[in-house]
Structures are given as C-alpha cells and as structure tokens.
Amino acid sequence: MYNLILADLFKLRKSMAIKILFGITTVSAVIMSVMAYMIPQGKIDASTTGIGFMFSDVNMMSILGAVMAGVFICGDFDNRTIHDAVANGSSRGEIIVSKAVVFFCAIAFILLPYAVITGIALGTGDQFSMGSAAVGLLHLLTSESGKAFSASEIWKLLTVMLTLIIVYMAQLSVCVPLALALKKPVLVIAINYGFAILCAQLMGLRNSSKVFDHIFAITPYGGNYIFVTLDTGTGDIFKAITVSLIFIIVMIAVTYCAFRKSEIK
Fold first, then answer.
1. How far apart are CA 239 and CA 217, in angstroms?
2. Alpha helices (H) in the chain, listed in sequence order
3. d(CA 95, CA 72)
4. Rounded to an integer, what distance in angstroms lies between the CA atom of residue 247 and that of residue 215?
5. C-alpha distances in angstroms, 146 versus 19, 37, 121, 229?
6. pLDDT tens, 32-45?
7. Cα torsion at 113, 179, 200, 231 (round to 10°)?
C-alpha cells in the first residue's frame, strides 16, 4: 500500500489538473478576501456578498473537491491504473485506502491558498465582512478580523485552520464511494454539489428538532464544525476532528464493502 500511495502522489504531483485547481483556489481566495475587505470599507455594495460567497472556500471546495475525485479516482478507471493494481496483486482494501489518502492530501493542497491568504489577511489587522454568508475559512476571516494576535492565539489559529481542513476532508469523503461506484466525474460532481446544498439547508432545521440536531451532529455537516473560530473551546475543536475522522473511516468502510466484490471491467 505504501508503494501505491507513493505512486499516486508522484502522479498527482505531475498532474496538470492539480495545478489548475490550485490556481483556481488561489485566485478565488484572493477575490474572496478583497471583496470581504472592500465591503466594510464601502468601496463595493453590500449586496455583492452573494458574488463573494461564490468564491468562498465552502462553495469552491464543494465543486473542486468533487472535480478532484472525478479526475483522480474516476480517471484511474479510464486509464486502467486500478485494473493494473488489482492484476499485480494489490488488494481492494489497499487500493481504496491509498486512493483515499492521496485524495485527502490533494484536498488539503488545494485548500492551502485559502488558509494562507486568510492568515495573511488576519495579520493585517483590517476589518473584513461578508454579511451572514460567511462559512468555513471565510467565517474565520470575518469573525476574527481587526484583532491583534498573541503568540498563543497564532498557534490556536493554525489549529482552527487545520480543523477546518479536516472537516472539509470529511465532507468530501463521500466522493470516494461515489467515484468508485459511478466512475463518472460528471455524476460525482453533480451529486456531491447537490448533497452539499441539501446539507446546508438541513442546518436550518437544527433548532426545530433536538433529535435531528443530535443525529446531524455526528456528521461533519452538522454541529458548528464548519464555524470553528478562536472562541471555540478545545473540547469542541477535538469533537469536530473526532467526528470528521470517524466519518472518513465510515466512508472508506462503505467504499470497501461496495468495491470488494464489484467486477472491474
């Protein structure tokens, strides 16, 4: 499995797709930050928050994360990389885990521009705002802007960013079974984006039913996991990471159960 991971990492590093996606997230992160800066300055109208949200991390990752799964995992069926791995004696479980590990590394990589630019923006001490449309790293940017950070707060800021990246990995982990089952990038992108929109709408139901809130909170889509900030307690950060990691494991297990007996054509 170690060799499979190394081979996939090498292929990922040479891939033009990962470079293009990294470029897209870099440009989007810059646009998001500039708009979040200009809105409270009055330089652009507050009604443009919807446009700013389009470039935010939560919206872009729901699309680009699925694109990465489609290119990286579905593409390996087209170029018969998975077929060759099975023919050479690799088990289905080893293939699934190696694909998942490299996929999550790719997610972290294309999220890096958002984390870096958010950190730089917060370091300026300026005010940033995107109204009520702030989620994820954009929410961190708008809620913590205009503050001076101590050394301990900088470390916590890094921890919060890492937590958000892990939550994103967990949310996008549904793309792994989708990609291996459907083998069609377009379907993976469409289903994942639709599911992300559905979960965003379901968050509005948390206050209407405590039972639903508790059930939803055991997934990375529920709770306040995507809204962690410096004010979030250590226990809540730990819970967000734990729930996300367990969800990832469950998704990998589901993928294994579906993939281990399927015929590879």
1. 10
2. 2-14, 16-41, 49-54, 57-69, 75-78, 81-87, 92-123, 137-144, 151-172, 175-182, 185-202, 210-216, 234-259
3. 13
4. 13
5. 33, 11, 10, 14
6. 999 988 888 877 87
7. -40
Residue written as tokens 């500039």?
34
Q: Angle formed by the axes of helices 151-172 and 185-202, to 10°?
A: 120
Q: How far apart are CA 153 and CA 159, in angstroms?
A: 10
DSSP state of 56: S
pLDDT for position 103? 92
Residue appearing with tokens 């790719």: 106
């992160």: which residue's tokens? 29
CA 65 to chain centre: 6
d(Cα 231, Cα 17) in Å, to the nearest integer? 37
pLDDT tens digit sequence for 118-147: 999 998 888 888 876 678 899 899 888 878
Q: 129 and 33 in contact (C-beta within 8 Å)?
A: no
Paired tokens of 203: 């968050």
Mean pLDDT computed over 181-194: 88
Two structure tokens written together for 103 = 């996929």
Q: Which residue has the tokens 């059930």?
A: 215
d(CA 144, CA 148): 9
C-alpha pair distances (Å), 235 with each of 83, 203, 228: 44, 21, 11
Q: Which residue has the tokens 């529920």?
A: 222
Q: Residues 45-103: pLDDT tens digits? A: 777 778 888 899 999 999 999 999 888 887 777 666 776 676 666 677 888 888 899 99
User: Residue written as tokens 């109208």?
Assistant: 45
d(CA 178, CA 61): 16
